[in-house]
Amino acid sequence: MTTQTATAAAALDEAFSLDHLLGQEELRWRDSARRFARERIAPVIEQDFEDKHFRREFVAELGALGFLGMHLKDPGCAGAGAVAYGLVCHELEAADSGWRTFVSVQGSLAMSAISKFGSDEQKAEWLPPMARGERIGCFALTEPQGGSDPAAMTTTARRDGDDWVIEGAKRWIGLAALADVAVVWAATEDGVRGFVVPTGTPGFTATAIDGKLSMRASVQCDIVLDGVRLPASAMLPGARGLSGPFSCLNEARYGIVWGAMGAARSCLEVSIERATSREVFGRPIGATQLIQQKLADMLVEYEKGMLLALHLGRLKEAGRLTPTQISVGKLNSVREALAIAREARTILGGDGITNAFPVMRHMANLESVRTYEGTDEIHTLVLGRALTGLAAF
Question: At 220, phi and psi to the nearest 5?
């Protein structure tokens, strides 16, 4: 971080003053994530984004810091509070959405599914090494023909003697080509069920999706399940129907509420830096009313987003957070983060389209965040249904 960026960050912190709303343990988690994001991710992320490079060596480091599955209370997991987890997501996404996505896929999706619905044997086998970053997991729900309608799932699991045989395909599955284990959701005669699938099982193939203009330092994949044979013990015994995967998705959506505001903060910080250092017509551009209005509007939306995230975190810790409330947070945070990123680009002028600044990278990544874990349209309809009692899907 440059001196100018640090000054901008300090100005933003002083204008907001969130710290007094947080506990000491929450601040410890935040500061740990902030150091990792600034010292390890930030120096290499622009080149990694350009090269489409995922730094697998960071996985064990994230595990050593306790970030993987940190909100779970299983053996090997940190058992941290919801706000602490949100703050970690916030700091990682301030560096890059891909690394918050990794923590979400590993902890909020794959590990959460095993924690919520797995047998004691499944938990003991997978959760401790996943928490340490020794094993990577993925969560295979979305299918090629349409991610917003999981009820139309075509992947099937059928009984064959004492075994299960899975046939089908999944798409946009984070980490699948790197994963040691996949939580695969499939339709059975008894409804949708989840299965713990070691990725070395014959018939399981994961191929990284190329050509992405977003999330380039992350890995998303197509999966083919061609006669994948599993023992009966591979089924997650506690999950039946779509409520199982949906509960995991809500864990990940909650992290996005905080994470997207991290990307917004990064864009706001560089805008403040640029506004005070760039001189045009004999004075800093930040001395003009139009630039100050842009910065003020960005700050207001950022503060509102963070206060909403904190409110949802406290509700989650009290056991009162609802899926509708999560939809409010996800819809607002991503939408406003994108608006802040686009306004930041105008303040940076032509330089804003270069990788000298993180804004275009954040903007591109946020387009993916806007789509996964429920599109804007889906969350809008969730809220409309909650307000009217009428489903418009």
Answer: -125, 145
